[in-house]
Design a protein that fits this description.
Blueprint: H1 3-11, H2 30-41, E1 43-50, H3 57-65, E2 82-92, E3 95-105, H4 118-136, E4 152-157, H5 166-175, E5 181-185, H6 193-209, H7 222-232, E6 237-238, E7 245-248, E8 251-258, E9 261-264, H8 273-283, H9 285-307, H10 322-418, H11 423-428, H12 431-440
Bound molecules: guanosine-5'-triphosphate and magnesium ion.
The site of magnesium ion has 4 residues, from helix 3.
Length: 442
């Protein structure tokens, strides 16, 4: 027998033995304890409303929860779709509900609607990411963590009576793996009964043919299987919203009053509002929360961890522990870091070498320049020296001539002072001095 088989046998847990109790012990109160704990803790529920501006989102929310939430009309001029979450604390009997309503403001108002779904997808992913980060913390506080993950997306379809718009199909397709989608036909009082019937069939056909997965009310719990199965056949719900109260008979009911009659919101012959409220709040709220965690969040978490390099089994389908994956990933990261460090070091050395060579080249050039200048300087110096010598000789010759001249002049003066009477004669001969002079000067 292979060693791994032996290991598996020794690790196998023994079958638990069934025993009967001699008397009452008390653990049959566990479900009550759970209920009591949940009630104390409170619940959170997050609804995303997607539908074009003015389709009746806020009115429907007010009608569903029988209250008036803060609403702010969108302008039709939003540059892109913007998600606006608002959280409220609601209480019914002793149950506290932290309700967040997220409005996709400006949906369908842009000329180019190619990316209208993206902010919605990003918002849903961001809530999953926040939850994942909390889960991965060493000190987690999931007990009092405000879970903002979207539990349901109410997709408001315009009551055209024709078919779904491509924006509706694209958006629902992009969202169906991330959130539970319940499609609803809004303002159902604006479409006739026969048209509505055909419209519902058309919508469901288009969703199926385009592979859009909408939320199906669960039929695995016996207590609600029947009602849920019936309600699945009624999708998409055609709803009417109104907070206005109108007197019908001797009762005040929420309705929309028209010159030709009254549309009662809670009358099942008039619209599917009651069906929606029952399915969304009274019967399946917990399943929506559960599906969000076990299906949509699980998918996000798996993809995210796989992206980070974690996996449950290696290539040979052997189970991989988180610790081992972490260690392997850490080693891989460290060796990558080392490789990058070495690369950087090498780059640095090369750069230093290059700079050194450049500096040496510059130094050589400078040296050559200096030598050249030095040579020019010496040449100049030599020429100046020669010039100086020449000048000196010229000065010397000049001085000699000057001395000779002075000597001649003094001789002449002397002769003049000896023969004063022969002045006129000498004057006549004066021109002759110059010829004598020109002969005697060296
Ligand atoms: P934004 O938040 O601005 O995008 O609008 P919204 O989708 O929240 O629509 P809102 O609830 O403000 O309603 C817009 C208009 O539609 C109001 O005049 C409502 O009275 C009207 N309205 C709402 N629900 C219905 C409905 O079921 N039927 C009809 N006929 N009108 C409705
Ligand atoms: Mg609104």
């Amino acid at each position: 027998m292979a060693a791994t088989d032996l290991e598996r046998i020794s690790n196998a847990e023994p079958e638990p033995r069934s025993l009967s109790l001699g008397g009452h012990v008390g653990f049959d109160s566990l479900p009550d304890q759970l209920v009591s704990k949940s009630v104390t803790q409170g619940f959170s529920f997050n609804i995303l409303c997607v539908g074009e501006t003015g389709i009746g989102k806020s009115t429907l929310m007010n009608t569903l929860f029988n209250t008036t939430f803060e609403t702010e009309e969108a302008s039709h001029h939003e540059e892109c779709v913007r998600l606006r979450p608002q959280t409220y604390d609601l209480q019914e009997s002793n149950v506290h509900l932290k309700l967040t309503i997220v409005d996709a403001v400006g949906f369908g108002d842009q000329i180019n609607k190619d990316d209208s779904y993206r902010p919605i997808v990003d918002y849903i992913d961001a809530q999953f990411e926040n939850y994942l980060q909390e889960e991965l913390k060493i000190r987690r506080s999931l007990f009092d963590y405000h879970d903002t993950r979207i539990h349901v997306c109410l997709y408001f379809i315009t009551p055209t009576g024709h078919s779904l718009k491509s924006l509706d199909l694209v958006t629902m397709k992009k969202l169906d793996s991330k959130v539970n989608i319940i499609p609803i036909i809004a303002k159902a009082d604006t479409i006739s009964k026969s048209e509505l019937h055909k419209f519902k069939i058309k919508i469901m056909g288009e969703l199926v043919s385009n592979g859009v997965q909408i939320y199906q009310f669960p039929t695995d719990d016996e207590a609600v299987a029947e009602i849920n199965a019936v309600m699945n056949a009624h999708l998409p719900f055609a709803v009417v919203g109104s907070t206005e109260e109108v007197k019908v008979g001797n009762k005040l009911v929420r309705a929309r009053q028209y010159p030709w009659g009254v549309v009662q919101v809670e009358n099942e012959n008039h619209c599917d509002f009651v069906k929606l409220r029952e399915m969304l709040i009274r019967v399946n709220m917990e399943d929506l929360r559960e599906q969000t965690h076990s299906r949509h969040y699980e998918l996000y978490r798996r993809c995210k961890l796989e992206e980070m390099g974690f996996q449950d089994s290696d290539g040979d389908s052997q189970p991989f522990s988180l610790q081992e994956t972490y260690e392997a990933k850490r080693k891989e990261f460290l060796s990558e870091l080392q490789r990058k460090e070495e690369e950087m070091r090498q780059m640095f050395v090369n750069k230093v070498k290059e700079t050194e060579l450049e500096l040496k080249e510059k130094e050589r050039e400078l040296h050559e320049k200096f030598e050249h200048l030095k040579r020019i300087h010496q040449e100049e110096k030599r020429k100046v020296e020669e010039k100086r010598k020449e000048l000196e000789e010229e000065t010397k010759a000049f001085n000699c001539r000057k001395a000779a001249m002075e000597a001649l002049q003094s001789q002449a003066l002397h002769a003049t002072s000896q023969q004063p009477l022969r002045k006129d004669k000498d004057k006549k001969k004066a021109g002759g001095w110059s010829s004598i002079y020109s002969v005697t000067i060296p």
